[in-house]
Amino acid sequence: MAHVVVVGSINMDLVTLAPRFPEPGETILGDRFLTVHGGKGANQAVAAARLGAEVTLVGAVGDDAFGEQLREGLAHENVRLDHVASIANCSSGTASITVAEGDNHIVVVPGANARVTPAQIERAQAALASADAILVQMEIPLESVEATLRLGQRVGKPVILNPAPAQPLPLEWLKLARYLTPNQHELAILLAADASEDFRSLMDRSPAPLVLTRGSDGAWFRENGEPLHQSGFKVDVVDTTGAGDTFNAALAVFLHEGLAVAVRKACAAAALSVTRLGAQGGMPTRAELEAFLATRAPLL
Question: Can you identify the CATH homologous superfamily of domain 3-10+40-59+114-294?
């Protein structure tokens, strides 16, 4: 069983389905309201746990009702919460999402996610040192992202940096990552480049080994030499929410089997995740992934 440590955000998504978006100052009646557990850190932790890993999450929730619900949900998924802080007099992270007319409007309030500190990362050193892989994203303070990268290097463990939501980072930080896992748009932002530039050219400029996700086209990856391509898996798409988080989690879980195998399994897990509604709701179990791969041609 792989041990994966995820450092990242924990949110409660407040989702309203409506027939249309209200005009400024207008009140309308919605069709449905849902509370959905989310946040990229929590999503990746749940996905990794369902794929059979021992998972430790490093993050924070508030001391509100959402914080309690989020902790209960993660515990139910067998995610270890020893390093999830409950911040007094602070709200849990939320994303208020209105879905209408085939689009969405989202307001994110980081809440306790903004209180994840480098000191908290240091206190989790023993967990990171025992990990087979470490996952970190960018919905927590950048100083804590840097602290995770540096601690991972110090304890000799591979850190996968999922640079989302993307923003430019110092090249020195990027070089600390064992793998970067952007899509083309995110990679262009990281490199301060034109997003219309050919993705192979962007890959050539990456300061760290890269696993580039390309939706239904699968992924391109390279450690040395020319980039290699893993094709996507053809499925009936229901909801793409959470596919990237599932991909990153699977990459971390199976990294010990070799990068090519891990990328193939990550593409397959991401494909499975889009066949059901919801981010965490669509994340497959290890048994589901193995059954899916058993019907597919072996990696060449």
Answer: Ribokinase (3.40.1190.20)
